[in-house]
Fold CopC domain-containing protein.
Amino acid sequence: MKPMTFAMKLILLSLLFPVLAFAHGGEDHSHDEAPGARTAAAGHPRIEAATESFEIVGHLRDGELSLLIDRFETNEPVLDGNVEVELNGRKAIATYHADHGDYAVSDEAFIRTLASPGTHSLVFTISAGDEMDLIEATMAVGDDAGSAAGTNAPPVSLRTAAIAGIVLTLILTAIAIALARRKPSTGN
């Protein structure tokens, strides 16, 4: 049997590294949320929209629609503006929270309608200083009270990913061995 070339050894070694990454466990790879950070937790309905003047990111969680609004060109937060949200002809005022730097809609009837499963069209009227703009956005709300429809694929377990990595490595190793056993062409 012909010895393996350096290139083949390198290929086999590089194929094993992804499998080795899955071959350990017990560590907590999560990261604590930064103090004061307001991000949407996985599975909560979320919106993102922008115009030439403003950009808005919002999420529905804990009985309110939380909104972060920035100026589009500078990414400067819009503080103490006036924000109105419309859903199915119903309007609600978003209150500015200086402690979090966000705006929140907590009108119970509005939130109940927005939290119902389906796709909801929202219109935001934002005025800050001399600027005023309308932003349209769509929020998808899933059937299980909080997950956005169609945005969360079922998670792949670590065990399934490790098995898939091992199987792929075995297949590629078999191909590399088969190629190594092939007789080289003499060119005659």
